[in-house]
Amino acid sequence: MSRGIVCTNMGVKAGKRIGVKGEIAAGAKSFVLNLGKDQANVVLHFNPRFDAHGDVRTIVCNSMDKGEWGAEQRESAFPFQEGTNVEIFITHDPSNLTIALPNNHQFKFPNRLGLQVIDFLNADGDFTIKSIQLE
Ligand SMILES: CCCO[C@@H]1O[C@H](CO)[C@@H](O[C@@H]2O[C@H](CO)[C@H](O)[C@H](OCc3cn(Cc4ccccc4)nn3)[C@H]2O)[C@H](O)[C@H]1NC(C)=O
């Protein structure tokens, strides 16, 4: 499995929206989007698990601060199908990130790092990014 795309110096300020469009592989087990300052300071680790680490069709989110994981947060909605294209939108403010998913699902995750600018994004696992929109 190839490691995914890495974006740096994105300069996305609070209130701006990041749109990530990509393809979920057929037979997908899990994929990751990490957003933050850099790979050791991740304000959102977004990890839909089709079947991984004992989780089935569950979105697991976390943060990483100076290389240390925070507490996991699990979401009930799982509007993903393996082998399909999907678009995910992320916005942030000083308190929260808002993640908009297909089928009008949306949830919030705390901005534990108090990050004001998102510079880093990477993808990993069974997901191929096709486009990234900064608006
Ligand atoms: C109950 C005691 C064990 O707890 C388990 O501990 C696992 C290991 O720490 C937890 O799994 C980790 O959860 C982290 C978030 O809290 C991350 O998701 C860890 O994965 C990091 C990662 C791997 N990759 C590469 C990758 C990603 C997707 C597919 C293929 C490769 N990219 N980021 C993932 O390994 C897993 O979420 C956790 N489960 C629970 C219920 O707490």
UniProtKB/TrEMBL annotation:
It comes from the Eukaryota. Keywords: Lectin. InterPro entries: ConA-like_dom_sf, Galectin-like, Galectin_CRD. Residues 4-135 form the Galectin domain. CDD domains: GLECT. One of its GO terms (cellular component) is extracellular space. GO terms for molecular function: lactose binding; laminin binding. This is Galectin. It comes from Gopherus agassizii.
